[in-house]
Amino acid sequence: MDLTASDAARLTGLSTRTVNAVYLRLRHRLLAWSPAPAELAGAVELDESYFGPRRVRGKRGRGAGGKTIVFGLFKCGGQVYTEIVPDCSKKTLQAIIRGKIDVSAMVNTGGWRGYDGLVDVGFDRHFRVRHGQDEFVQGASHINGIESFWSFAKARLQQFKGVPKHTFLLHLKESEFRFNHRYEDFYKLLLKLLRQQPL
């Protein structure tokens, strides 16, 4: 049901501290069950997003105000993979792209300059959608799948009214796991996995 620890504590009669400890162990398990993909092929959408406070006074631009930067890969068909990155530089993004995506893939990105030069390193089928120029779909190219994940993850995390930096990865990977299994009965899936590997 995706209840907060305080709501679950009220319903179960357990302390919030106990519920939080169980939730933490479950999130560590979900992280372990979210492996990095082997080379993705077919159509893949790439995008970067910023997580953190909505607005910080006096700070502007990409990654403003110490937000956490997340890079996402979305395999057409519905699976997402995310990684926290230190920046959105060409060097950082292309290191991940070259390690996770097959050069034969059709790569769809936004217009950010960090994606410049992908064709030069073998990604001949690189297509851009330039949102800054009010372009959201270019033929069959778009990044709607990864953007739907960003919306899903941010809406989920909003209920916590702030996530500590040291547990952000766990919350992110929980969101990723839930999104990747969104067409399954999450409760039954969790029970099945926990029977195989109890906490």
Textual characterization of the structure:
This protein is an alpha/beta fold and 199 residues long. The chain contains six helices and five strands, in the order ααβββαββααα. Strands 3-2-1-4-5 form a five-stranded mixed beta sheet, with helices on one face. A hairpin with a 3-residue loop joins β2 and β3. α4 crosses α5. The longest helix is centred in the first third of the chain and has 17 residues. About 3% of the residues have low confidence.
Question: Which terms summarize this structure?
Answer:
199 residues, alpha/beta, Nucleotidyltransferase, domain 5, five-stranded mixed beta sheet, Transposase
CATH topology tier name: Nucleotidyltransferase, domain 5
Distance between the termini: 19 Å
Fraction of helical residues: 25-40%
Q: Secondary-structure element sequence? A: HHEEEHEEHHH
The strand line-up of the biggest sheet is 3-2-1-4-5
User: In what range is the share of β-strand residues?
Assistant: 15-25%
- Kindly give the count of domains: 1
* Total number of beta strands: 5
Identify the CATH homologous superfamily. Ribonuclease H-like superfamily/Ribonuclease H
- Kindly name the structural category: alpha/beta
CATH class: Alpha Beta
Query: Mind describing the biggest β-sheet?
Result: 5 strands, mixed
The global form is globular
Total helices: the number is 6
Could you list the spans in which at least 5 consecutive residues all have pLDDT below 50? Answer: 133-137
CATH architecture: 2-Layer Sandwich
Radius of gyration, in angstroms, nearest whole number: 18 Å
Domain ISXO2-like transposase: 39-180
Organism: Hymenobacter lapidarius
Pfam families: DDE_Tnp_IS1595
Protein name: Transposase
